[in-house]
Design goal:
The protein has 5 helices and 7 strands. With 170 residues, the protein is α/β, with parallel strands linked by helices.
Length: 170
């Protein structure tokens, strides 16, 4: 009984830390994946990052559909374990999941960055991306705009759809 209680506390603590640091886990709708990657214009061999990758769905899609080097960063231990299990069934050297705080990852080589982050928590990420990303890097924000940036495109085909924002680093 003690071990079960301990495991539940660890899971709750891990998910809480992830939610407080950047965003709670909110998975992208499967039907939005083609819209996300149409904006991303991801090409084979490019480097794709999902910052706070949750269960790894978007990273796996990038890897399978576009043969990109696909890297998912996750700080929630239970979700990271889900990603690692999924990786076991998709053996590919270009599919990488890291148990890591996104603010501690060097993103200089990224061609495309994707994230879902709460609007009022994006300031710190925006500063990191402005410092690190190379010119031409495409940045996809799912649901919320990045305050202070002007999107190159916003995909919202109808009022019921979720907004997807594209930014390009100059």
């Amino acid at each position: 009984m003690f071990y079960l209680l301990f495991a539940i506390i660890i899971v709750l603590l891990s998910v809480t830390i992830a939610g407080v640091s950047f965003a709670p886990w909110v998975p992208a709708w499967k039907s939005d994946l083609p819209r996300i990657f149409k904006l991303a214009e991801l090409k084979p061999g490019q480097i794709f990052y999902d910052l706070g990758c949750g269960n790894g769905k978007v990273v796996l899609y990038a890897n399978k559909q576009f043969q990109a080097k696909s890297i998912g960063l996750e700080i929630s231990l239970p979700l990271y374990f889900v990603c690692k299990v999924r990786q076991l069934f998709n053996l590919n050297k270009n599919l990488i999941f890291k148990y890591k705080n996104l603010y501690r990852e060097d993103l200089k080589q990224a061609d495309v960055i994707y994230f879902f982050g709460i609007a009022n928590k994006l300031d710190k990420l925006r500063a990191k991306l402005e410092r690190e990303l190379k010119p031409g890097c495409r940045i996809i924000s799912y649901v919320f705009p990045v305050i202070g940036w002007i999107p190159v495109a916003v995909d919202k085909p109808n009022p019921k759809d979720i907004s997807i924002y594209l930014y390009i680093k100059n």
